[in-house]
Design brief:
The complex is a heterotetramer of chains A (about 325), B (about 525), C (about 525) and D (about 290). Chain A is mainly α and about 325 residues long. Chain A is built from 13 helices and no strands. Chain B has about 525 residues and is an alpha/beta fold. Chain B has three domains: about 170 residues, 3-Layer(aba) Sandwich (Rossmann fold), CATH 3.40.50; about 80 residues, no CATH class; about 260 residues, Rossmann fold. Helices cover about 35% and strands about 25% of the residues of chain B. In chain B, helix 7 links the parallel strand 6 and strand 7. The two termini of chain B are about 30 Å apart. Chain C is α+β, with helices and mostly antiparallel strands. Chain C contains 14 helices and 21 strands. In chain C, the strands form five sheets. In chain C, strands 1, 10, 11, 12, 13, 14, 15, 16, 17, 18 and 19 form an eleven-stranded mixed sheet that branches. The chains are: A mainly alpha (about 325), B alpha/beta (about 525), C alpha+beta (about 525), D mainly alpha (about 290). The interface between A and B is medium-sized, with 32 and 28 residues. Chain C: InterPro entries: Peptide/Ni-bd, SBP_5, SBP_5_dom, TAT_signal. Chain C: Pfam families: SBP_bac_5. Chain C: This is ABC transporter substrate-binding protein. Chain B: Its main location: membrane.
């Protein structure tokens, strides 16, 4: 469909603009931070001469726009530049941090979808009854609990008091898959808020869809309850939920920063925090690009799925 | 009460020793919050017969019809007996077939699910093919032959007629012995109506019992074998259609059946040369996202003279609403000029001066949607006089009240919220809202479609009175319905965006020239002929 | 001048890591309430721990530096860096528990009469590749550190050495030529980051070669480093087979990992964590006393603190006990406005200062500074800073002084407070008193946060550095400290403990050494019971 | 022909409608505790007592002492206002910007105006919110007001999109065209009608957004942004006192419960307000 193609093309163009804007914004912000990598590195030994020497060693004495231009030129060739503080390539930072974060995110999303949809459908199915009340109020409450608080709580209960699970992923390095038990709590914490919002969204959509004439019609014609729920009502409840799912990437990122710190998982969130603290601008930039591209691609994907699910939204007259 | 007597006697069919009914309702009472919306209704649906429930909106006919499907309003208390033949539930064709088609699934989804249940006893590998065959058969029975491609489409990609036939095919595939058709022809033009009538007749011919819920008396007369007349939840009269038409016993039935056009043709005003509104070389486009602009209307020349009424007739999608909206300034995307008294009107309402706004007023098809649901009707109507004529609030309210009551709205109703008024009342209020501007040109866009006969007649009467009382107002009546068009002095016929014919009403109605107009007239005639009028 | 003690550097790092963890940088320590350290605080390593057992792998959790971490010992900046560096490398000397220099790779040192030429003899030691540690290695290492194009931290410490004139006098002996007399030359050898690397070593990320007790097995920056026992270590092979350093920036994560048995050693815990687990037998809590000086720095070159009566009034405003209890959660000891409690040369004869609001008011009145308004700069840069600031604000209010607490950026705090403002929160890790003076209290000091510029004070320092006799030198230091006690710019209200947690089977952890001294984070003497 | 056995239909369809009043009462009950504490707490807080050692339970302190030895109960009394105010202010601010932007975007027929207003927000939407907060916060070291502004800023794009979508829906209704035909003012059309029509959508969104804002404020505190680390603020208390969780749990549990009550309660209230009022229009077509 040409309509679809031009839609995708326009969205991609917007995505590129978004990513560029994000990078510029991040660059401007990191440049505007008081102090630079040299000051940050000097710490409580702010000997001016030493700061100057470090600055020179890091090539920070060059004007900001020159550094940006050089970095951007490199980016065009797929080169993310090198870290100011360690001199290692930024791509290495990204590559090393990407694994654990991707694993966490993928696991979370993989569980998020069935859990969120399952709970939402369950609540909608028993609308107004105990199961619904229970699910609704629990999701509401858990939604309000920040990750760090939940993380501490879960660790205290399941790892320290009961001793069922390892409290952190310390020492497991990037090979987290070999220690599935260590992943359980982090994923649970990451899952908590998105699941709640997704479940609530699916519930609302399902309540509407199940009451919609087409669902009643299908039921009237003898189609089984489960089939009506999943094959006929759910696709209609899906579109807003899928949009929300794309929005979850932002949440996951927030959550990942906290969760990685809490459970000692060396992923992108940790890299980001360190880079911001060290004023390691190229690394922050690289991350901004990665996150920007991810956000754009996921949103585009969500739009396409939503478009597929609710075809009226896109093409309808 | 006479109703009592009538209702206790079940439909005439049961007196015959004819075939057993495939569905039967006995002494149905549906109550919400202690108020009965259906009370003591009996109904028998016989195979191959069309049983019609007629009545104004709110008379309980829909509730009764849906009871056959086992559906009741939420929170309702139901007593009585509903029986349906065991081999297949009742089929249902709603007024808006799109509402029962799942927007997120292809057309084939529900058909597949229905067919699957029927092929369970076949060997696994044969099931698919067998199900497919059944589906195609059902579609072809519903007059959708060669529908393979259609199955892959989404509901919104089908035309209204196709949607209706798909819904019908679902019922046929199901093997329904009874099919409830809810207002299948409401708001449709004569050509479509006649097609639907044929279709329902074909259903009955297949031995299916059809329960027709309608306020379209032409269709009822053309189709029904038995008619139940409902009012306020009760059946006031029932019997074979001929008997009812020829000798209605109940006063309400008489009122309902009094279909003669209220009034036709005043003398057209002497042609006073300068038109009040003049359209030249109008080309309107629609833009829908990907496809780019499509031209939906071309009107080289159209004029409206002071005191004149012009009916614009056409099928749905012919561009007549777009024409009206262009004139009202609600459809910006057009070229060409619209002159008011010789001066060009800005394209968009937003750029029109108050005087210009007041001069051209527009009444919407869907009155309920055209009112703010949060404010009392009177307030909203009065605002026209405040904004467009600079009246202060007090006098505006006074005038609004006078206009509203003049149009037949009870004074106490004017202080209510729109949701508390009936469709007919709201349409009157909408008319009042436009009239308060003292318009030179009043554009009425299908304002009677979707209303039952009695209400419609009331509105049309109000319009007629208006034309008589205010000689300076020119009326533009957008309609698909030739009966309403009779009201006008002149008629313009639109087809597929082109203005195919225009002229004095009697000339168009008696000797149409364009082939399309001819076919339109013929179908209407055929429908009326069927009704035996 | 002098060495930079290791100490403070780590803090910025910490805090950087601590970025996430507002509470992270624990620091402060002792249960001043109960007045006693944990069990076994009676003496140093080993006692009561039974006979050392050989073997096993110890996992130690530190706050780390993320993916930018390096094994280059000269770049060591954080506690984790230092702990790794001292496992892989040696310095010529290191600090004892009282911050006096103890010989390490240097077997002995000998000065000439004028204290500007020092003969250093190396002990017999080998690098992990079997090559002996030679004078050339030492000179190469020092010259690398002093490279003006690099910003190595120890460069400033080595400044007194004239490296062009210094030379090897034998395979294992060097003559260091100094630019001026320096009685505390051994402190330079113990300076933070002054590690000895093999001649011409430039790359350290892939299996670096050192002379320390452990050899590098693997290193993943920001995650973990695995080192193996070096059997030919000059001081005797470590008890442990292997040590793994893991990075966990969140304090709670370190504690949880320790409680969950994922690590056996957790560095830098919160006082409250310590209190929670001190006596429940799950883990062992170790408090390293006097590890971090806590105070306020008054800029003595500007109003209102250019008047020494105002400074004295401020000394009297502070309720030190309340500050230690509140800001350090009780984990520390009160201070007496002098740096280096318990260190060599500390003037412990001076009377403990107490809060005296009446005299403080009187002094302020004399100085014409009633209704004084001061801005106190603070930042979440170190644990206890903001708490101390608000507590002190409340205390000052009782003396009629209005303090406006201004919270600044963590990342640039130290360079912000160096020259601007009048009053700020300050802290310092352990370093010799001499280093504290040379870095912070001389006219030419690079980090003179109190702007203490006094020619006579500078002269006293030079005099001390030219005094060969320890006793005489101690007398000069005492004079200097008395001066600072009377009207100096540092209001030092406490010394925080440094708190470690270990699994109960970990033995041989030194309980006396302040953070950054030789026996702190020294894993070659540790064993698993 | 067989017939289905006739079914006795009475009562089968008597659907229990969830009682709205009950929902309101529950929401009110849950939210009133934190709200009353937030509003009146400071009045009753009184003068600060002497500091005790940190994290000591009991000993004249109802809920023990916090991480710097202050009375937890007093901190609780003082700490509600900033949380509630920051969260409410941030939510309100977000809408203050999002509403006009969304309304104008939905009502204007000028494509360029819509694009200029909404495209920049799309860009902002692509910035991970925590990254934005971290960066801006480190540049500006915001105070409570700054934090509210920042959190509001993060919420604006999303809120504006929701307002625009809902308003576009309402603006496409004939009622708006009818208002235009009446020559009604922009204000009455946009605010009086469209604004009024999207109120329910907004209320629903505001409920979740408030929770999200509270979450952000609390997480920002966890990351050390925006509030003084020793401020009397429930979110900060939860974070700062959590080191003492094992020694003195009250310092964490009490403020945490209050925050959860605040968000849960407000959501319950919004839910109740939104709960579809039972069918009022008995005459209309029954919903199937």
């Amino acid at each position: 469909m040409t309509g679809l193609r031009s839609f995708v093309a326009r969205r991609l163009l917007l995505g590129v603009a978004q990513t560029v804007a994000v990078v510029l914004l991040v660059f401007a912000l990191t440049e505007a931070l008081p102090g630079d990598a040299a000051v940050a590195l000097a710490g409580d030994q702010p000997d001016p001469a030493r700061i100057a020497a470090i600055r020179e060693a890091m090539h920070l004495d060059r004007p900001a726009y020159e550094r940006l231009a050089e970095w951007a030129a490199g980016l065009v060739h797929g080169d993310f530049g090198t870290s100011v503080t360690s001199g290692r390539p930024v791509s290495q930072y990204l590559a090393e941090g990407f694994g654990p974060t991707l694993l966490l995110a993928a696991l979370t999303v993989a569980l998020l979808v069935p859990a969120g949809f399952g709970l939402g459908v369950l609540a909608a199915r028993h609308e107004g009854r105990l199961a619904d009340r229970l699910i609704s109020s629990v999701t509401l409450t858990v939604y309000a609990v920040p990750e760090f608080a939940l993380g501490i709580l879960l660790v205290t209960v399941f790892a320290l008091h009961l001793g069922w699970l390892p409290p952190t992923a310390v020492g497991y390095g990037t090979d987290l898959l070999a220690h599935p038990a260590a992943l359980l709590l982090p994923v649970l914490v990451l899952l908590s808020r998105p699941v709640c919002s997704l479940a609530r969204l699916v519930r609302a959509g399902m309540v509407d869809a199940l009451a919609a004439p087409y669902a009643v019609h299908a039921r009237r014609y003898g189609i089984g309850g489960a089939r009506v729920r999943y094959a006929h009502a759910l696709p209609n409840a899906l579109a807003p939920a899928v949009q929300q799912l794309a929005r979850t990437i932002d949440w996951l990122l927030c959550g990942v920063i906290v969760v990685e710190a809490l459970f000692v998982i060396p992923g992108l969130g940790t890299v980001l925090l360190n880079a911001v603290a060290e004023r390691d601008v190229p690394v922050v930039q690289g991350l901004a690009v990665v996150f920007g591209v991810l956000t754009v691609v996921l949103n585009l994907g969500a739009d396409l799925v939503a478009h597929r699910l609710a075809p009226r939204a896109g093409v309808a007259a | 009460m006479t109703e009592r007597n009538d209702t206790t006697a079940p439909t005439g069919a049961c007196t015959d020793a004819g075939p057993a009914p495939v569905a039967e309702i006995r002494d149905l009472r549906v109550e919400i919050d202690g108020r009965a919306i259906v009370d003591g209704v009996h109904l028998r649906a016989l195979p191959g017969k069309v049983t019609a429930l007629v009545g104004a909106s709110g008379s309980g006919k829909t509730t009764t019809g849906l009871a056959l499907l086992g559906a009741y309003p939420s929170g309702a208390r139901v007593t009585g007996d509903v029986r349906v033949a065991a081999d297949g539930p009742a089929g249902y064709v709603p007024q808006h077939p799109a509402s029962v088609l799942n927007p997120a699934r292809r057309v084939s989804a529900l058909l597949n699910d229905i067919a699957r249940t029927q092929v369970r006893d076949l060997p696994r590998h044969e099931r698919r093919a067998a199900a497919r065959k059944r589906i195609l058969q059902a579609l072809s029975d519903a007059q959708l032959p060669h529908a393979e491609a259609l199955l892959r489409r989404y509901p919104h990609q089908l035309s209204g007629g196709q949607q209706q036939r798909v819904v019908l095919a679902q019922a046929l595939l199901l093997g329904a012995r009874v099919i409830v058709a809810d207002e299948p022809t409401t708001g449709q033009d004569a050509l479509t109506k006649s097609r639907i009538v044929d279709q329902l007749a074909a259903l009955a011919a297949r031995g299916i019992a059809v329960v027709l819920l309608s306020h379209d008396l032409d269709v009822v007369h053309a189709l029904a074998d038995e008619v139940l007349v409902m009012r306020a939840g009760r059946v006031v009269e029932s019997g074979p259609v001929q008997r009812l038409w020829l000798a209605p016993r109940h006063e309400w039935t008489r009122q309902l059946l009094d279909t003669r056009p209220s009034s036709t043709g005043h003398e057209p005003p002497s042609d006073t040369g300068r038109p009040v509104l003049r359209v030249r070389h109008l080309t309107a486009r629609h833009r829908d996202g990907a496809h780019g602009p499509t031209v939906v209307l071309r009107t080289p020349e159209l004029a409206l003279h002071p005191g004149e009424s012009l009916a614009v007739v056409g099928r749905s999608g012919s561009g007549k609403t777009t024409l009206a909206r262009c004139l009202a300034g609600l459809h910006r995307d057009h070229d060409g000029q619209v002159h008011l008294d010789g001066t060009p009107l800005p394209r968009s309402v937003r750029q029109r001066s108050r005087a210009q706004l007041a001069a051209v007023q527009y009444v919407f098809q869907d009155a309920r949607a055209a009112f703010d649901e949060h404010r009392p009707v009177l307030d909203q109507v009065a605002r026209t006089a405040v904004r467009l004529r600079g009246l202060d609030h007090e006098s505006a309210v006074q005038e609004a009240l006078a206009t509203l009551t003049g149009l037949g709205l009870p004074p106490e109703a004017t202080h209510r919220l729109p949701s508390e008024l009936s469709g007919g009342e709201l349409q009157r209020a909408a008319l009042a809202r436009a009239l308060l501007a003292r318009p030179r040109v009043l554009i009425c866009d299908e304002i009677t479609s979707g209303l039952d006969t009695v209400t419609r007649r009331g509105i049309l009467d109000a319009l007629t009175d208006l034309l008589r009382d205010r000689a300076d107002v020119s009326l533009m009546l957008i309609t698909h319905d030739l009966e309403s068009a009779r009201l006008a002095h002149r008629i313009a016929v639109l087809e597929a965006g082109e203005l195919v014919e225009q002229g004095p009403a009697h000339r168009i109605l008696t000797e149409p020239r364009h082939p399309f107009t001819v076919s339109l007239m013929e179908t209407t005639a055929r429908l009326e002929a069927k009704t035996g009028a | 001048m002098t060495e930079e003690s290791d100490t403070h550097l780590p803090f910025p790092g910490l805090r950087r890591r601590g970025f996430l963890a507002a509470t992270g940088a624990a620091s402060l320590g002792a249960l001043a309430l109960s007045g006693c350290g944990g069990p076994g605080s009676d003496d140093g390593k080993g006692t009561g721990d039974g006979r050392p057992r050989r073997g096993g792998r110890l996992r130690a959790a530190f706050a780390g530096g993320g993916a930018s971490e390096t094994l280059d010992p000269h770049l060591a900046n954080l506690f984790a860096d230092v702990a790794r560096a001292k496992a892989l490398f040696d310095k010529l000397a290191d600090y004892g528990a009282d911050l006096s220099a103890q010989p390490r790779l240097a077997e002995k040192w000998q000065a000439n009469k004028t204290l500007d030429r020092w003969q250093v003899t190396l002990r017999k030691a080998t690098f992990h590749n079997g090559k002996p540690v030679t004078a050339q290695d030492v000179l190469y290492s020092y010259r690398r550190i002093a490279d003006p194009t690099k910003g190595f931290r120890a460069k400033a410490s080595l400044e007194p050495i004239d490296l062009d004139a210094s030379h090897a006098t034998g395979k294992r002996s060097i003559e260091f030529v100094l630019k001026r007399p320096t009685a505390e030359f051994p402190n330079i050898l113990a300076a933070f980051g002054a590690y000895i690397v093999p001649e011409n070593a430039t790359a350290f990320d892939e299996k670096p070669i050192g002379s320390g007790p452990f050899r590098c097995v693997s290193f993943a920056p920001g995650r973990s480093a695995v080192f193996r026992r070096y059997d030919d270590y000059w001081e005797g092979a470590p008890h442990l087979d292997e040590i793994e350093f893991v990075v966990a920036n969140e304090e709670s994560a370190r504690v949880n990992a320790l409680l969950g048995g994922q690590v056996e050693y957790a560095h830098e815990l919160d006082p409250t964590t310590a209190r929670a687990h001190e006596d429940n037998g799950q883990i062992e809590i170790v408090r390293l006393r006097n590890s971090a000086m806590q105070g306020f720095a008054m800029k003595t070159d500007r109003a209102p603190f250019d008047d020494k009566r105002v400074r004295q009034a401020f000394f009297l405003i502070a309720d030190r006990k309340e500050l230690v209890d509140g800001a350090l959660s009780g984990a520390g000891e009160i201070g007496n406005d002098l740096f280096g409690k318990g260190y060599e040369y500390y003037a412990d004869g001076l009377p403990q200062r107490e809060q005296d609001l009446g005299r403080a008011r009187a002094l302020l009145k004399q100085a014409g500074a009633e209704r004084l308004k001061v801005t106190l700069d603070t930042s979440a840069v170190a644990a206890g800073f903001t708490e101390a600031a608000t507590i002190f604000r409340d205390q000052a209010a009782k003396a009629g002084v209005t303090i406006d607490v201004k919270t600044g950026s963590k990342d640039t705090y130290w360079s912000d407070i160096l020259d601007s403002g009048t009053l700020c929160c300050y802290r310092s890790g352990a370093m010799p008193i001499e280093a504290h003076i040379s870095q912070r209290l001389l006219t030419g000091s690079t980090t003179n946060a109190t702007k203490w510029h006094h020619k006579d004070f500078d002269a006293l320092y030079q005099q001390a550095q030219s005094t060969p006799d320890t006793k005489d030198r101690a007398a000069v230091y005492a004079r200097m400290q008395r001066r600072l006690y009377t009207d100096g710019g540092f209001l030092i209200w406490g010394f925080a403990d440094w708190i470690l947690g270990t699994a109960r089977k970990v033995k041989g952890v030194d309980r006396k050494a302040p953070a950054n001294t030789l026996d702190w984070a020294r894993f070659d003497k540790v064993w698993l019971a | 022909m067989t017939h289905k056995p006739s079914t006795l239909l009475s009562d089968t369809y008597a659907v229990v409608q969830p009682r709205r009043a009950g929902r309101y009462a529950l929401g009110l009950a849950v939210i009133s505790v934190p709200l009353v504490l937030a509003v009146l707490g400071p009045v009753f807080a009184g003068a600060p007592g002497a500091r005790a050692a940190s994290f000591t339970p009991g000993d004249g302190h109802w809920f023990g002492t916090d991480f710097v030895g202050r009375d937890v109960w007093r901190q609780v009394l003082l700490g509600g206002r900033p949380v509630a105010l920051t969260a409410l202010a941030a939510t309100a601010l977000a809408y203050l910007v999002a509403l006009p932007v969304g309304l104008i975007g939905a009502l204007t027929h000028r494509r360029w105006l819509e694009e200029t207003l909404l495209r920049p927000l799309d860009v902002l939407l692509a910035v991970p919110s925590l990254l934005l907060i971290l960066l801006v916060a480190s540049v500006l070291t915001p105070d409570a007001v700054g934090l509210a502004l920042l959190v509001a800023l993060v919420n604006v794009p999303d809120a504006a999109r929701i307002v625009r979508a809902a308003a576009a829906d309402a603006a496409a209704r004939p009622a708006v065209e009818a208002l235009r035909m009446q020559g009604e003012t922009w204000w009455r059309t946009a605010v009086g009608y469209v604004g009024r029509s999207i109120l329910r959508t907004l209320a629903a969104d505001a409920g979740t957004r408030l929770t999200g804002v509270l979450y952000l404020v609390a997480t920002a505190a966890f990351l050390g942004v925006g509030v003084a680390p020793d401020a009397a603020d429930w979110a900060v208390m939860v974070d700062r006192n959590r080191t003492g969780l094992f020694v003195q749990p009250w310092a964490v549990v009490v403020p945490a419960l209050l925050i959860v009550a605040l968000t849960t309660g407000s959501n319950l209230l919004f839910d109740a307000a939104l709960h579809k009022p039972g069918r009022r229009r008995g005459e209309r077509k029954p919903r199937l």
